[in-house]
Every structure is written in C-alpha cells, then in structure tokens.
Automatic annotation (TrEMBL):
This is Spermidine/putrescine transport system permease protein. Keywords: Cell membrane, Membrane, Transmembrane, Transmembrane helix, Transport. It is found in: Cell membrane. Signal peptide: none annotated. The chain crosses the membrane at residues 12-34, 70-90, 102-125, 145-164, 185-207, 241-263. Belongs to the binding-protein-dependent transport system permease family. CysTW subfamily. It comes from the Bacteria. InterPro entries: Bact_Polyamine_Transport, MetI-like, MetI-like_sf. It holds the Pfam family BPD_transp_1. Its main location: membrane.
C-alpha cells in the first residue's frame, strides 16, 4: 500500500495538532509559573521569577491539602490493591457461568458517578456509626478513603486480572506436588509473577486517589485535600502559584517515568544475561558428557 505525499502531510499535520492540543495547556501553564504578573499569563512575558514556587510552599492551606491528599492516596493503595488482588483471584477460581455476574458486580462502582459514591458513602457511614456507636469512623479522611477505594479497587482488579490470566497453573500444581503449602505457593510463586501488575495497580490507585474530586468533595466533610483547595481557589481567582504546583507535579511524573524506564531496562538486561549464562552452562554441561558407546 503506497502513501501519497499529500496523505503524509495530512497525517503529520494531524499528529502536530493532536500534540499541540494535548501539551499546549501544560506548556502555557508551565510558562506562566515563571512570569512575574500576579495573574497567570504567558504573553507579554514581563520577567523571569521563581517567587511563585516560594509562595506555593508558604501557602498553608495548599500544603495541608497536599499532605492530606498524599496520606489519603497511600491509605487507598493499602486497601485497593489487596482488594483488587483478591477480586482477580476469585475471578479465575469461580465457574464460567458465575463470572459474568461477578464481573458485573465488582465493576459496577466504576460505572457509578463519583457524586453518587460520595453522597452514599456519607449517608451509609453516618447511619452505621450512629447505630453501632463507632462515631470515630465518621471522619472526613476515613470516609474519603472508603469512598475512593470502593471504585479504585475495581481498577486494580482489572490490571491484576490481565496479568493473572497469563499465569501458568502448572507451576502451582508442580509446587504442591513437591510438598509446598498453599501459602508458600502464594508468596513464592504467584506474588512474584504478579509483581509488575501489583506495582502498576498501586501507581494507578495512588494517582486516581490524588486527582479525585467528585467523590472527595462530598466525603471529605470538614477536611481539605489538594483538589478541594484548588477548586476553591479557582472560584476566587487563580494565581501563578497554582501553575508552579502544576510544574512540580509534571516534573515529578516525568522524572518517575524516566527512573522506572531505566530500572526496567536494567532488569530486562540482567534477565537476558542470566538466561544466556544458564544457556551457556547447559551447553557446557552437554559438551562435557561422554558420548554413548557404539552398539
């Protein structure tokens, strides 16, 4: 199939427009973080400054919201990843007839609007804590963790399930035949195989919790997170300090992706070297074996 020059130009133009649309707002926001005016603007560029980064860290509400978002994100990871792991394992163990119904039930929170999840979380736990005398559970942070984990755990389950479907059950059966217990099989065979999926699920759970607004704005009660603080600031009028925050978040994300890619390539190179060393040792062992005597 030949491609005409006009089609190539059209495709290149489409790619350029796509990346401009995708990265343009980030570039504008990043440039406004280094401009001196008090309102975010890129042009005219009145002067280079780093003062907005200092004002960002001096903002107590912003730093408190950031701290709470990080704390809630870690708690959501600790709850969502084990629940997602358990849900994925159950999915592979139940009968094929029950999988459709089970899948519908566990994925339904993802299809539920975040506003509904936030309101229902507050209503349920208010009645539950009032009837059981556990009022300490009716806290903004705890309710937010429960509300977010109710649908983020489904994301984790889907990621882990995609990896688990490629797992060779013969490894478990061989380990059991050799005398291993079920906990030993789980911790020494299944979990190492699922390590990449567990890491991906943890990262996704943290990022989904960190940027969540719809559920958080109802379940957080009197507490604050970074998203609720930013929403309040946007109603009152934004400053380049928010652009400085965006620059920091983008920089941390890009740096994390680069570090992960470097570590992944090193791990892949080490695995290839181990495979080559094992293959070479096997060839040497076969070469040192005596040849069978002729009949």
């Amino acid at each position: 199939m030949t491609v005409s020059p006009f089609q190539r130009i059209l495709f290149a133009l489409y790619i350029a427009i796509f990346f401009i649309y995708l990265l343009g707002p980030l570039a504008v926001m990043g440039a406004s973080a280094f401009n001196t005016p008090e309102y975010p603007q890129v042009w005219p560029f009145e002067g280079f400054t780093l003062d907005w980064f200092g004002k960002l860290f001096a903002d107590q509400d912003m730093m408190y919201g950031l701290k709470m978002s990080l704390w809630i994100g870690l708690l959501v990871v600790c709850i969502s990843v084990p629940i997602g792991l358990a849900g994925a394992i159950v999915m592979t163990q139940i009968t094929p007839r029950a999988r459709s119904l089970y899948y519908l039930v566990v994925v339904s929170p993802v299809l539920t609007p975040g506003i509904i999840i936030g309101i229902s979380t507050v209503v349920f736990w208010r009645q539950f804590t009032g009837q059981t005398g556990t009022r300490f559970l009716y806290d903004g942070v705890i309710l937010t963790v429960f509300g977010q984990a109710s649908f983020i755990s489904a994301y984790c389950m889907l990621i882990i399930l995609a990896r688990l479907q490629r797992f060779d059950r013969a490894q478990e059966e061989a380990a059991l035949d050799l005398g291993a217990s079920y906990p030993q099989v789980f911790f020494h065979i299944l979990l190492p195989f699922l390590k990449p999926a567990l890491f991906s699920a943890a990262v996704l759970a943290f990022l989904s919790s960190f940027e969540n607004y719809n559920t958080t704005t109802f379940s957080i009660l009197a507490e604050k997170t970074l998203t609720t603080v930013l929403a309040g600031r946007m109603r009152q009028g934004t400053t380049p300090a928010i652009s400085a925050l965006a620059v920091i978040i983008v920089a941390v994300t890009v740096l994390g992706a680069i570090v992960y890619e470097i570590l992944k390539r090193r791990a892949d190179a080490a695995a290839v070297q181990r495979q080559r060393a094992a293959q070479a040792a096997e060839e040497e062992e076969l070469a040192g074996m005596p040849s069978p005597a002729p009949a």
